[in-house]
Specification:
The chain is mainly alpha-helical. It contains 9 helices and no strands. It is elongated, with a radius of gyration of 19 Å.
């Protein structure tokens, strides 16, 4: 008995859709995804019920990876909540400066998926809630006076950084976002007694 060395149709569809919806946008045609995955249309319907199901599963999978990346970035910054929060902006700046950067997948999905009941919107909401909780947790550890509000502000800065970096390459929004993030975070620092 030999083990399968190549991914099956389901995984090939997910890989192709993940790549193409990021590089070409959520409106990429299903024919392009099928061609890239080298699978028959029937496989799409068998595994996902159609393009909406495929996009939703791509968003779900990437959200798990991206939320883990936030945690990994913060863990690499050590135990200090301030350093952990600001490390997010440093890392996003690095990501935004790569040639392959095309913006925030979740913002792009929300803008492109016109149907408010599209199941992808539930995934993007959950992703944002997870990121918010991660940020708020660190702000609570920092004893910020308004951790929920500050997490909202930091999340707005993250979204803005990613949107500006995608629409105005080379404009360097990460430094400005980090500077504003420092102000939000430092509002919670205790004044010396």
């Amino acid at each position: 008995m030999t083990a399968r060395t190549t991914p099956g149709p389901r995984e090939r569809l997910l890989d192709a859709a993940r790549q193409l919806t990021y590089t070409q946008g959520m409106g990429v045609g299903i024919d392009a995804i099928l061609k890239s995955a080298n699978v028959a249309r029937r496989s799409l319907y068998e595994h996902f019920g159609g393009k909406d199901g495929l996009i939703t599963e791509v968003l779900r999978r990437t959200a798990v990876v991206d939320v883990a990346a936030y945690r990994t970035t913060m863990d690499a910054a050590g135990d200090d909540p301030r350093a952990r929060l600001l490390a997010v902006f440093d890392r996003l700046g690095e990501v935004a400066d790569t040639p392959a950067f095309r913006g925030c997948r979740y913002l792009a999905a929300d803008l492109a998926l016109a149907d408010p009941d599209h199941p992808g919107h539930a995934v993007t909401r959950e992703y944002r809630e997870d990121v918010h909780q991660i940020l708020e947790h660190e702000l609570v550890r920092l004893e910020h006076p308004r951790p929920g509000h500050a997490a909202d502000q930091l999340q707005l800065l993250v979204d803005g950084l990613l949107a500006v970096a995608a629409t105005r390459p080379g404009s360097g929004p990460a430094a400005a976002a980090r500077e504003l993030a420092e102000r939000v975070v430092d509002e919670g620092r205790r004044a010396p007694a």
